[in-house]
Amino acid sequence: MSLADRFITHTVENQATPLADYDAFATDPALQEALQREGGGWARDQVAAYGPIAGGELLHLGFQANEHKPVFKPFDRYGHRIDQVEFHPSYHRIMELGVRHGVPNFAWRHADRPGANVARAALAYLHMQPEQGNNCPLTMTYACVPTLRKQAELVRDWLPRVTASEYDGRPVPAWHKAGNTIGMGMTEKQGGSDVRSNRTRAHPVGSGGPGQLYELVGHKFFFSAPMSDAFLVLAQAAGGLSCFLLPRHLPDGSLNPVRIQRLKDKLGDWSNASSEVEFHGAAAWLIGEEGRGVANILEMVALTRQDCLIGSAGIMRQALVQAIHHVRGRRAFGKRLSEQALMKNVLADLALESEAALALAMRVARAVGASDSDPTEAAFARIATAIGKYQVCKRCVPMVNEAQECLGGLGYVEENILPRLYRQAPLNSIWEGSGNIQCLDLLRALQREPATGQALLAELRSVAGEHRLLDGETRSIEQALTDSGHLETRARHLTGRIALALQAVQLLRTGHGASPSCSSALAWAASTASISAPCLPPRRLMR
Ligand SMILES: Cc1cc2nc3c(=O)[nH]c(=O)nc-3n(C[C@H](O)[C@H](O)[C@H](O)COP(=O)(O)OP(=O)(O)OC[C@H]3O[C@@H](n4cnc5c(N)ncnc54)[C@H](O)[C@@H]3O)c2cc1C
Q1: Taking 50 as the threshold, does the pLDDT of residue 533 lie above it?
Q2: Rounded CA gap, 172 and 176, in Å?
Q3: Do 442 and 361 share a structural domain?
Q4: What is the spatial distance between Cα 457 and Cα 28, in angstroms, rounded to a whole number?
Q5: Residue 346: inside a domain, yes or no?
Q6: Separation CA 79–CA 352 (nearest Å)
Q7: Ligand 1 pocket, 423 CB below 6 A?
Q8: pLDDT score recorded for residue 5
Q9: pLDDT tens-digit readout, 237-251
Q10: Which single residue of 27, 102, 166, 435 has CA 20 to 30 Å from 173?
Q11: Which three-class secondary structure state does DSSP give residue 129?
């Protein structure tokens, strides 16, 4: 035995290989089916082209972008205020890929084709699986469009760049770039959910009014992606809370006085910079009438909430894929982990939860996309976005944890993506309206817009007769909705139940004909029904 051989302590065996360079679209039949089912099948080639990127380059870049967090540079070397945030090149490359493949713009560039928003949702779902930090700027850039459209000058001057397929991360004026990104500033220290408490003040520079220039004085406590080319912000004008477009640079090319105070030290979402800012007389154009700020920015918020739902479904899918890959590559007690009865049970639950999240997200995306032409779909989108965001974003946290556990100790180690997913998972349920706010939104919609309740019940009844347990749950939900007693106190329980029933409906829709998903639908319907009828044979999903 040589000296070197004497110090060979062990050989590495029975370890799974890293999951890398796979095609995230080709390996996802549930996504392919959903794209087709919800009307985006015509864009299959464009979506499919993103599959190998999402399972390849984006996965690699995601690790780099999170390892090298953004750095705040308040001054240049000579002491000039520059208020810059420097990102690692991997962040810019991820942005570039997302923009080029349509994550923020596909729905707008193909707006004349029904299903464009579904195809865009599929792209976003793929994009949000390997790296989540730049979902924030990509989503806000996508979501700002309906609000920008409220002001003709902005449509002319900004919309072409906001919906362009080019990304340019340089800190230069927006009009020197082929493509722009947009951020959003609503939350202030004294109130986030309750934006009517905003104190930032807006003073007209001239006569004031829609499309006119104002000066903003105040602050925002959360202001993500501060290197965006412009921001939709809320501020108090003489006529009340109003919505403005605030560019990063002034028309003369100098920096708009938006002073970054610091970057937030966040639990997760590391590749994205979230800042605190002050407006020192920052210039901004009024969108729409003074006093209509909440109504005008809410259209953006509705789309960002839709993306929270899609994003959480994406995180779930990534967690599931990692878990399955690992347990196939590792053995314990004489068998592969994937062949152990209890592990199969866990994986089945994870897969069900992931498919149900995707199915609901894609259904909501169809309704959102059809909202302009179909009032029933608009009503369904209005209510189902809140329901889906509440449920799927909340379920994402325990679901990722369960997937982590499938990897054992490795699931807790940073070289793996699971710890990053776990840190990211709670965020979608907090921002863009936390859980309670979604539940209150559901109640508000039911009370003020009766068409939303009708659209919801029509959706639940659309599969009537197909599954006994779901039929019973639908009747029970109808009854619960007519009982007005203590509605606010019951709102969380009610929202959760409706969400599960809606997910069961979507899975049953996938089960029409000979689809193999049929068994998922039945399993989900059974688990849904067990919520209201606990005496039924329990097949509960990780509860
Ligand atoms: C990483 C990160 C990035 C962010 N980026 C941005 C950004 O770019 N732009 C931006 O504007 N904001 C941003 N936010 C802010 C985010 O949208 C808010 O934090 C969120 O809306 C909640 O507001 P808040 O923090 O003031 O909490 P609060 O409004 O104080 O809410 C605290 C809790 O009270 C609950 N609550 C509130 N009202 C009621 C009620 N009536 N009944 C029952 N419960 C209630 C809420 O659901 C929540 O659970 C970001 C947040 C994070 C974490």
Answers
A1: no
A2: 7
A3: yes
A4: 30
A5: yes
A6: 56
A7: no
A8: 83
A9: 999 999 999 999 999
A10: 102
A11: coil
